[in-house]
Structure formats: C-alpha cells, structure tokens
Amino acid sequence: MTAEIAVEITGLKKSFGPLDVLKGIDLTVRSGDVVCIIGPSGSGKSTMLRCVNLLEEPNAGKIVVNGVELTDPEVDVDAARRTIGMVFQGFNLFSHLSVLNNLTVAQRKVLRRSEEESQRVALHNLERVGLSDKVNAMPAQLSGGQQQRVAIARALSMNPSVMLFDEPTSALDPELVGDVLGVMRQLADEGMTMLVVTHEMQFAREVADRVLFMDGGYVVEEGPAEQVIGAPTHERTKSFLARVLNPNHLD
Amino acid sequence: MALSKRQRAQTFRIAQYGLLVVIVVVLALIADWGEIQRAFFRLDIAAGMFPNAITTALKNTIVYTALGFVFGLVVGLVLALMKLSPVPPYRWIATIYIEFFRGIPALLVFIAISFGVPLAFQIQFDIYSTVMLALGIVGAAYMAETIRAGIQAVPKGQIEAARSLGMSQGRTTLTVVIPQAFRIILPPLTNELIMLTKDSSLIYIIGLAREQYELTKFGRETLSRSVSLTPILVIGLCYLIITLPLGHLSRHLEKRTGGKKIDTPESTGV
Predict the structure, then answer these.
(1) Nearest residue on chain A to B181, judged by CA atoms?
(2) CATH 1.10.3720.10 is right for the domain spanning B41-268
(3) What is the per-residue pLDDT across B192-234, written as a single tens digit (0 to 9) for each?
(4) Hey, is the C-beta of B158 within 8 angstroms of any chain A C-beta?
(5) Contact A106/B157, CB-based, under 8 Å?
(6) DSSP secondary structure of B39-51
(7) Per residue in B157-180, pLDDT tens?
(8) How far is CA A179 from the centre of its chain?
(9) Where do the domains of chain B lie?
(10) Phi-psi domain of A61 (left: phi exceeds 0; alpha: psi -120 through 50; beta: other)
(11) A-chain residues within 8 Å CB-CB of B178?
(12) Do A78 and B158 touch (CB under 8 A)?
C-alpha cells in the first residue's frame, strides 16, 4: 500500500444556487486503483466526478490530482485537464470531425504533436478499443457503443494518468453495453487509475478495487466491492441495492 | 337531399377549383394581349440587353454581393462573439450596433458611406470599398443574430468534451464551436445572402459609370431608352438566376441538417 496517490479530495462542497449537491466529500484514490461510485440519481455522484476535472467549480474543499492542486486559483486548469481523461454519458464526440480527427485534434492543438505522431497514437488507441476499421467514419454513422469506445480512445490518446467515466453505459442499448464495459475492464487490467460513476453492479463487483455508495451529497458507505455490494451495512445502501439488483421486488 | 360530411367537403373543393378557373379565364379575356406584349415582351429590346446584362450587370451584382457578404460575415461573427461575451460593455456595443443597423433602411447606410464618411474623414472610397462597407455593415447586423443563435445551439457536451481534453476556451470556440455553429446556420445564412443580393442594387446612389452598373441600375438605364417595360422583366429574371439556386441550396441544406430549428429573435418574436 505504498502506491502514490493519484486523486485526493478533501472536504469537497458544491451547491447549485440554493441546492446543496455535495456536502463534504473526502476521497483518496491511489495510482492504479479502480473506484466505482454508485448511488441513486441526485445523490451528487456525477457532480463529484465533474469536480475532479473542474467541469464544475467546487464551492469549498481541496482537490489534488497527481500532486497538482486544482482548487488553487492560480493553477493552469487546461494543463491539469490534459492528464485527466473524461468519458461522458452522451459520448460527446465532435460531430463535425471524422473518428480519426476526433482522436487527433486535441493531440495536435493542445499537446502540439505532429500530424504523423498524433495519427500513430490515434490508430493505436482505436485498435485498443477494437475499432480500427472505423478510422474514416463520421460519429453519426456509428452505433452508440461504437461512439462511446471512440470517446474512450479519444481520451486515451492524450495519455491521461486518470480516467473519469460518467455513467458511460447509461445511454446505450442493452446489447451494446458489454463492448464498452469490456474495453473498460481491459483498461483496468492494464493498470489505469479509474473513477467510474455507474449503475452496472456486476461490473463494479468484478472490476472495482473499491466502491463508494453516495446519497444526499455524502459518501454513505465505502469499501471493497464485495463488502459494499455484497454485504452492505447501512440501511440506505441496502435498500438502494435491493432495488437495483432486483428491480421487480416490491418494498 | 342530405349530403354526408365527406360529400360536402368534396363539393366545396370542386367549387373552389371552379372559381379559380373562372377568375383566370375572365382575366385572360379582358386582358389586351397585344398591349401586354408591347409593354413587357419586346424580344428585340430584350435581345439588345445581352450580352451586357450578363457580362457587366449580373457579374457586378455577384461581385458586390460577395464583397458585402464576406465583410458582413466577419463583422457579424465578431458581433456575435461580443454579444455572448461575459464582458458587459462588449454586449452593449454589439446590441446597440445590431439594433441600430437592423432598424434603419440600408439606403441610409449607403448614403452615409458614400458621402458622409468621405466628408468627415477626408478619405475617398472606390466603389468596391463602398459597397463592401455599406452592404457588410447592414448584413453584419442581421448575420450577428443568426450566428449567435447558431453558437448557442451547439450542444454543451461538445464544449465540455473539448475542455476536458485540455483545450482553452478560445481554442474550443475556434476548433469546435464555430465550425459546428456554421453547419447549423447555413440555411438562414443563405437567406441573408439572398437579401444582400437584392440590397446590392442600392449602390446606384453613388452614381455609377457604365462598366460599374449592377442589374437594377442597368435595367433602369435601358428602360429610359426604350418605350417598353421589357428591361424590368429581363432584370427580374437575372435576379432569379442568382436567388433561385440559393433558395434551393438553402432548402437542401435544411433537409440535410435535419431541419433543425434554431430560435433567432425573428422566429421567437423576442
């Protein structure tokens, strides 16, 4: 347990107007860890994830990623974001660019890589997600699952040290979920540090080193996947899991 | 005899067609076709207008319009970005500009650029600069609102994706937002191009040499030398040569982009 710390969140608070969404979150993620965040909608789990790369500005608290304090007002946010990959629920591929250009545009404009190098990196990452044959396709020509895998490859092309996944399979048809989870599982096996907001309990159970259950802006329960999902101790965790794992069950 | 609802509707429709036919026939009968032909369809006069109608007038109309459109597009883009700026004075300036130039006749702008500005600043514009400035200034006011609506119609997720890849706000605007905004607003922009094509005729106000004639001036000049309104008809058709394909292009683009509606102030009545 001497691995270096990738993400450290302390006392994170966030509100939208009068609505307090995060009421004090503490979280430490070691390099190479896969942390899954589960919880009912409105519990603040997506907001928490979006604070980690400052897509949402925290109201209070401290966020340190790879030794850089993002909440320092003097920090270069754009530089910090380069090392943090983000995958969205709605894919958000650039609709006016081909798959290849989706993967190369930020490499060239942000990392100043050459055309050849950025293409080489892009092709390598497309291969990792199994979509080498879609290099020249436009996003609209791809299925949701393919778009999400391209989005993962796009994030990987920046060589991030941390990957954030915000409900990556929630907008997918059920039969396409498996491909995306497969890619994520492979990433986890390769040792990527991952924070995953998800409703896929099976995935969390098998892949996550740690699971967080959030509700009402707090982390209610935290621990190894087997413990949080398999044998939850808190009442709210139990009732949430009962409903998710057994949707037909009536209270 | 009681008619069913369907039969009543059918009878009513037949009556409408009948009325239409009667109106057309009556008009055709009372019209003096010989006089109409002398007034509008003198082939000899029409033939005499060519090739200058095309080689000078139509060409100049296209050149003047293109100059004004390009200049207006650039200014309009700057105004749109100013209007969306977090800096309040930028927004005020853009709003005042748009409201002012959208609210006055384009002819006034042409007069101001042709006569007022040279007097005030001791500079003399050639015809190309004049038409570019005057048409562009007016066009920018309209295009700014369209471009602003287009920028706002770009999904927020596209911006978040760009920012999360480390792009700065400026880089995001240039690389992601503006290219996508222009895709969205191509149909309304085409309509503004049609409008500018017609407004380019206002350049007559500065007094044109023969080789500078655009379509309307050329038509009026021919008209004053003939006893027939034929030149007006020819000129009208020449405008349609430009505007009909543009209108067609606009509808085609609208279909291609899925007819996505964006709310410009015109369409929402704001």
Answers:
(1) A96
(2) yes
(3) 999 999 999 998 888 888 888 888 888 888 888 887 888 888 8
(4) yes
(5) no
(6) HH--HHHHHHTTT
(7) 999 999 999 999 999 999 999 999
(8) 16
(9) 41-268
(10) left
(11) none
(12) no
B164/A95 touch (CB, cutoff 8 Å), yes or no: no
Neighbour count for residue A86 (Cβ, 10 Å): 26
Q: Scan residues 75-104 of A and list those with Cβ closer than 8 Å to B.
A: 78-79, 81-82, 84-86, 88, 90, 92-96
Pairwise CB contact (< 8 Å): A94 & B183: no
Whether A159 and chain B come into contact, CB under 8 Å, resolves to no
Q: Judge whether A158 is closer than 8 Å to chain B, CB to CB.
A: yes
pLDDT in tens for each of the 251 residues of chain A?
A: 446 899 999 999 999 999 999 999 999 999 999 999 999 988 999 999 999 999 999 999 999 999 999 999 999 999 999 999 999 999 999 999 999 999 999 999 999 999 999 999 999 999 999 999 999 999 999 999 999 999 999 999 999 999 999 999 999 998 999 999 999 999 999 999 999 999 999 999 999 999 999 999 999 999 999 999 989 999 999 999 988 888 776 65
Element (H, E) at B216: helix B215-224
Q: How many angstroms separate the CA of residue B255 from the nearest CA in chain A?
A: 16
For A52, name the nearest residue in chain B, comparing CA atoms only.
B164
Contact A9, A27 (CB under 8 A): yes
pTM of this structure: 0.82
Interchain pair A78, B166: CB under 8 A: yes
Burial of B146 (0-12, 13-18, 19+ CB in 10 A): buried
Residue A219: Cβ-neighbour burial (10 angstroms; 0-12, 13-18, 19+): buried
Kindly determine whether residue A94 and residue B176, on different chains, have CB atoms separated by under 8 Å.
yes
Q: At what angle are helices B215-224 and B230-256 packed, to 10 degrees?
A: 160
Are the beta carbons of A105 and A99 closer than 8 angstroms? no
